[in-house]
UniProtKB/TrEMBL annotation:
Keyword check for Lyase: no
Domain Thioesterase intervals: 87-161
Protein name: PaaI family thioesterase
SUPFAM superfamilies, sorted: Thioesterase/thiol ester dehydrase-isomerase (SSF54637)
UniProt keyword annotation of Hydrolase present: yes
Membrane spanning stretches: none
């Protein structure tokens, strides 16, 4: 037997997804099983990211928050992120890694430089599942004239799901007196 979400959601739920409550038109639900809570809310401090381009809009939605001198990028694993074995596709985690690492470089100085990926390494340690809240934390290891080396991790709660590192081309605005 399937339970049905409130009319605003209009999607049947499996028996192991009991409806908890609804408020102000937002569905709130909990996944029972495998010890994972699945809530639709976004954790405190995260704001919707204003990333440009249709690729990132389709891959998200992404959220950002500032922690000290660093920025964290968050993502709730949704239906569109899941592969045929019911875990987040590796491309979703790799894209989150690329976004978070390059965003750290982009926000490292004013005016913001153009940042492009030269290389990206993602080490998958554990799977992400539907409803997981993922947080990518990054740090700049080295920032040079033309390149940046950045590393970080993607976690779900206390569990590290992936580590990542990347090298990025950094193209700064050229001033009138600067010759390159």
């Amino acid at each position: 037997m399937l339970q049905v979400w409130p009319s605003i959601c209009a999607k049947p739920l499996p028996d192991n997804w009991p409806l908890i409550s609804r408020a102000t038109g937002l569905c709130r639900w909990l996944l029972v099983g495998k010890g994972r809570a699945l809530m639709s809310e976004i954790p405190d401090g995260f704001q919707p990211a204003q990333f440009n381009g249709p690729y990132l809009q389709r891959g998200g939605p992404y959220y950002v928050r500032t922690v000290g001198d660093c920025y964290e990028v968050g993502l709730r694993v949704g239906d569109g992120h899941i592969n045929y074995i019911d875990i987040a596709h590796g491309g979703v985690l790799s894209t989150l890694a690329d976004v978070a690492l390059s965003f750290q470089v982009y926000l490292s100085e004013r005016p913001n430089p153009a940042v492009t990926t030269v290389s990206l390494t993602t080490n998958f340690l554990a799977p992400a599942r539907l409803g997981d809240w993922l947080v990518a934390t990054t740090k700049i290891d080295r920032l040079g004239k033309r390149s940046a080396h950045v590393s970080g991790s993607i976690c779900c709660g206390e569990q590290t799901l992936a580590t990542m590192s990347g090298v990025f081309n950094v193209r700064r605005a050229v001033s009138a007196g600067d010759k390159r």
